[in-house]
Amino acid sequence: MNSTPDEKLVSLFQAGDVNAFEALYHRYSRSLVNFMMRMLHDEHRAEDLFQDIFIKLLEMPEIYQNKARFKIWLYRVAMNRCLNDIRNRKKRREHAVRIAESLPKNQVTNDRQLNQIEAKIEIRQALAQLPAEQQAALILKYYQNLTYPEIAEISGCPVGTIKSRLHYAIENLRLILIQE
């Protein structure tokens, strides 16, 4: 089933073939977790969300309705899960900052030290500072090696918008890295 097209595997899976599901899972596990890890900057969280996506697909095979190629649909689902997770994490972080501000100074220092340890790699720092849409476009293009049309389909916007996002993402990365 290694050379079987995605759409055929999906049809077989939706008809009850568990081997087809396993083939899809193994076909996309490495690349999708890698994409999600780059979006989230957290390998464990990326793996958890990847598992959630495939568990949901296993429980509800009809969720994929063949309106887009399976690969595009899967990356779109993964991107949306990452963006939602980033938004939720930002809300939790803002709440933690409010709590930290109410604590004595020596406890706040520990939070700062943890944040500094977390953000050591310059490129990750710079990437994390980009708007989510620019981050996603950059990762899909340069880490996942997807084409402009594929990225546009995943993102749900025109190819020109993707090219613009990539242009600004690269420019913003350059500026961020120069400042550091």
Tell me the strand percentage band: under 5%
The number of E-state strands comes to 0
Count of individual helical segments: 9
Count of spatially separate domains? 2
Q: What is the CA-CA span between the terminal residues?
A: 48 Å
Secondary-structure arrangement, i.e. CATH architecture of the largest domain: Orthogonal Bundle
| CATH classification class of the largest domain | Mainly Alpha
Query: Could you name the CATH topology of the largest domain?
Result: Rna Polymerase Sigma Factor, Chain: A
How would you characterize the overall build of this protein?
The protein folds into two domains: 1-87, Rna Polymerase Sigma Factor, Chain: A; 121-180, Orthogonal Bundle (Arc Repressor Mutant, subunit A), CATH 1.10.10. With 180 residues, the chain is mainly alpha-helical. The chain is built from nine helices and no strands. Helix 1 packs across helix 2 (18-40), helix 2 (18-40) packs antiparallel against helix 3 and helix 2 crosses helix 4 (70-101).
What's this, in brief?
The chain is an all-alpha fold. It contains 9 helices and no strands.
List the helices and strands and how they pair.
Blueprint lengths: L5 H9 L3 H23 L2 H17 L10 H32 L3 H14 L3 H8 L2 H12 L4 H8 L3 H21 L1
Helix pairs in contact: 1-2, 2-3, 2-4, 2-7, 3-4, 4-8, 6-9, 7-9, 8-9
